[in-house]
Amino acid sequence: MRVPVQIISFSFFLFSVTFVQSQDITCTAPVISNGYVVEPLPEYQKDAILKYRCNERFKPREGIPRCAKFGWTLNPECDEVTCELKSTTFGVKNIKPEGKSIFRAGESVEITCSEKTG
């Protein structure tokens, strides 16, 4: 005698969940050319702001460096203070030193204006 047999199979999918412990995000104080870190710490925690100053005749770059996953959000750097003499020379008779247009802090430029004639 034949008896109909229904075969039911169950598949079990095995999976594993791995929990990775996150490491604390930290940054170290960078060496700043022509500047220094104010109140340096051995380590800075995530989102900490780096306070720094620049030496005389230098200024900090724009922006605020924050500690992030891959280091500081921007490089804390000090740029030299300069001023630029634009190319407008209308009414200018003479410029000394001649041919120079960018000057460092403390440098001088002499501009002689043309005399108006009636």
From TrEMBL:
Sushi domain location: 27-78
Main location as per UniProt: virion
Coiled coil feature spans: none
Superkingdom of this protein's organism: Eukaryota
SMART domains tied to this protein: CCP (SM00032)
InterPro entries to which the protein is assigned, alphabetical: ComplSys_Reg/VirEntry_Med, Sushi/SCR/CCP_sf, Sushi_SCR_CCP_dom
Residues spanning the signal sequence: 1-22
Pfam families: Sushi
Keyword set, alphabetical order: Disulfide bond, Signal, Sushi
Keyword Signal tagged: yes
Gene3D superfamilies: Complement Module, domain 1
Subcellular location per the Swiss-Prot or TrEMBL entry: Virion
Protein name, UniProt field: Sushi domain-containing protein
